[in-house]
């Protein structure tokens, strides 16, 4: 929302100093009271009548946006003083006879029951530090953070990287960074990320006209549209000619450092859109779809819950241990998966396939991955129209060998992140290569040595199969990996989920999320999504960075 100078200022709430927060809260309380009194100057409406809906709407003078922000703070701020005072301000407004908002939905994820996520105010000391850091940096504790915190080590690295990309010194101005985030998220119709960055874009002084459509943004940003499109959907088509076009367009040209910053931002938000849809992230409380000013309905949930697969039955089906319900069939599935891992390890120890056989298995897996697809009639999460933020709305993911088109295999031995991409990024955008490298390694190596109900399990084989399957879908091959393992370890429902989340995340449904690894904890499914996010980001980066390297040499 646009803040009015001298009326409602939120910045002070991000302070770690309790006195500074208290002063900011007093200022906010007074400003809200002044606005409220102009709408409802008469005597307060008794609470009984408030329940009948006889309250004045708060739409005037931007008050509804302010009240929605206070609702978010009362539920999602890591500082208890801010939560309590925000709630008190809302109660005061209601006593004046003005409708106050209430949250829609059921926690940070549509796929994970709220009681199984970390509740704000009940987190341990380490998580509280992460929450406070996130809030101090962004001015909010978003739903992505509240789901990622299942894995605090990764979350810390993710927040540090995102903070550097968006707010620290770098080649691109701040409003460009948020606009590029909007462009990237819009490619996957991710209204959740678009809404967040529209607000951030305006907050750092971005021109509201740019939000009317990409054609209203500077030509320099419009020129980035083609690269955005290919990176998101068909990164294997990027050539050094595309890079040359961006770097040599006279007055609208990009510098190499700016382009690296833009490429990292685009890949970051493409993959974050995958996480958003893959984990069913709910709209933020203060954003569109996150709250309502209407009285609760008799059924206590709205029609959007039903269309999104929520039927209010979580309490009935959730197991007392706070994990996904476990059936006998599910237990058999996890036992079978562990047995396959054991057998594959024994085969590895006994014999090694020839290089020719390994290459054949890769080509077979790459070919088979083209026929893994989600059914087209699946309902995806509703999203407001975000197509104005990008061009060519019909351009989407296409398997490489469709229509007789052949794309050469990308051999990691010829161009890898470790040996080539890392140093290129670090040279042109200092420290970012290091931050990305750390994030990739944490996601790839993260383990608690558990699988569902089993402990002391080496999951490295399974994690590598997931990572390499994603890269295989992008045509990327590791010469030392036996791709025959993928079919042994990843069943069809899991492959459908992986391909959907990585390639067409906007089509992900709760049914897909529920249908794979039914016996595993929600935290383990979030862990899978971290692997999908980072493997996808690295795949996109490899194609873009290889093209940049070829342009430079």
Describe the secondary structure blueprint for this structure:
Layout: H1 18-39, H2 47-51, H3 63-76, H4 80-95, E1 102-103, H5 125-138, H6 143-148, H7 152-167, H8 174-186, H9 191-203, H10 219-222, H11 225-233, H12 240-247, H13 256-278, E2 291-292, H14 303-307, H15 314-317, H16 328-350, H17 355-369, E3 410-411, H18 417-428, H19 432-445, E4 450-451, E5 454-455, H20 460-473, E6 476-477, H21 484-489, H22 492-503, H23 510-515, H24 522-552
Parallel strand pairs: 3-6
Antiparallel strand pairs: 1-2, 4-5
Pfam families: PA26
Protein name: SESN1 protein
Organism: Caloenas nicobarica
Care to describe what's here?
The longest helix is centred in the last third of the chain and has 31 residues, at 522-552. The chain is an all-alpha fold. It has a domain at 143-293 and 329-377 and 387-552. 41% of the residues are buried. The strands form three sheets. The protein has a two-stranded antiparallel ribbon. Strands 3-6 form a two-stranded parallel ribbon. It has helices at 18-39, 47-51, 63-76, 80-95, 125-138, 143-148, 152-167, 174-186, 191-203, 219-222, 225-233, 240-247, 256-278, 303-307, 314-317, 328-350, 355-369, 417-428, 432-445, 460-473, 484-489, 492-503, 510-515, 522-552; strands spanning 102-103, 291-292, 410-411, 450-451, 454-455, 476-477. The protein is 55% helix and 2% strand. Helix 3 packs antiparallel against helix 4 (80-95), helix 7 (152-167) runs antiparallel to helix 19 and helix 13 runs antiparallel to helix 24 (522-552). The chain has 24 helices and six strands. It is globular and about 80 Å long. A hairpin with a 2-residue loop joins strand 4 (450-451) and strand 5.
């Amino acid at each position: 929302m646009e803040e009015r100078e001298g009326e409602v200022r939120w910045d002070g709430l991000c302070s770690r100093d309790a006195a500074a927060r208290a002063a900011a809260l007093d200022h906010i309380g007074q400003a809200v009271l002044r606005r409220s009194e102009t709408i409802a100057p008469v005597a307060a409406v008794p609470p009984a009548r408030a329940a009948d809906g006889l309250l004045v709407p708060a739409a005037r003078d931007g008050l509804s946006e302010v009240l929605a922000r206070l609702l978010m703070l009362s539920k999602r701020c890591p500082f208890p003083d801010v939560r309590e005072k925000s709630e008190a301000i809302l109660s005061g407004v209601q006593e004046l006879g003005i409708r106050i908002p209430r949250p829609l939905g059921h926690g940070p994820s549509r796929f994970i029951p709220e009681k199984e996520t970390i509740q704000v105010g009940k987190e341990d000391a380490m998580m509280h530090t992460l929450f406070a850091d996130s809030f101090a940096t962004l001015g909010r504790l978003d739903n992505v953070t509240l789901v990622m915190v299942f894995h605090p080590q990764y979350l810390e690295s993710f927040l540090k990287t995102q903070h550097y990309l968006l707010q620290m010194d770098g080649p691109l101005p701040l409003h460009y960074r948020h606009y590029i985030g909007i462009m990237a998220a819009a490619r996957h119709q991710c209204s959740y990320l678009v809404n967040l960055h529209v607000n951030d874009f305006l907050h750092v002084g971005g021109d509201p006209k740019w939000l009317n459509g990409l054609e209203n943004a500077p030509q320099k940003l419009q020129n980035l549209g083609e690269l955005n499109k290919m990176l998101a959907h068909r990164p294997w088509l990027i050539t050094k000619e595309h890079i040359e076009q961006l770097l040599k367009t006279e007055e609208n040209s990009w510098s190499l450092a700016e382009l690296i910053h833009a490429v990292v931002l685009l890949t970051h938000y493409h993959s974050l859109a995958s996480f958003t849809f893959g984990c069913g992230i709910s709209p933020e409380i203060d954003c569109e779809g996150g709250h309502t000013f209407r009285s609760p309905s008799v059924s206590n949930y709205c029609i959007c819950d039903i269309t999104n697969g929520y039927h209010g039955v979580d309490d009935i089906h959730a197991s007392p241990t706070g994990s996904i319900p476990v059936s006998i069939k599910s237990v058999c599935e996890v036992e079978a998966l562990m047995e396959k891992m054991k057998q594959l390890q024994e085969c590895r120890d006994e014999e090694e396939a020839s290089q020719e056989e390994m290459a054949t298995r890769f080509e077979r897996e790459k070919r088979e991955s083209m026929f893994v697809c989600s059914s087209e009639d699946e309902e995806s999460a509703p999203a407001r129209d975000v197509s104005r933020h990008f061009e060519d709305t019909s351009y989407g993911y296409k398997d490489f060998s469709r229509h007789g088109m052949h794309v050469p295999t990308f051999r990691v031995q010829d161009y890898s992140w470790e040996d080539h991409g890392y140093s290129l990024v670090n040279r042109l955008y200092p420290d970012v290569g290091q931050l990305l490298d750390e994030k990739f390694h944490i996601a790839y190596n993260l383990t608690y040595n558990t699988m569902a109900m089993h402990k002391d399990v080496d999951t490295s084989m399974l994690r590598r199969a997931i990572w390499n399957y994603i890269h295989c879908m992008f045509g990327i091959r590791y010469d030392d990996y036996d791709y025959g393992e993928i079919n042994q370890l990843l069943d069809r429902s899991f492959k459908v989920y992986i391909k959907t989340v990585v390639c067409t995340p906007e089509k992900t449904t709760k049914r897909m999320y529920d249908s794979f690894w039914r016996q595993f904890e929600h935290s383990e499914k979030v862990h899978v999504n971290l692997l999908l996010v980072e493997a996808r980001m690295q795949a996109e980066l490899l194609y873009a960075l290889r093209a940049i390297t070829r342009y430079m040499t």
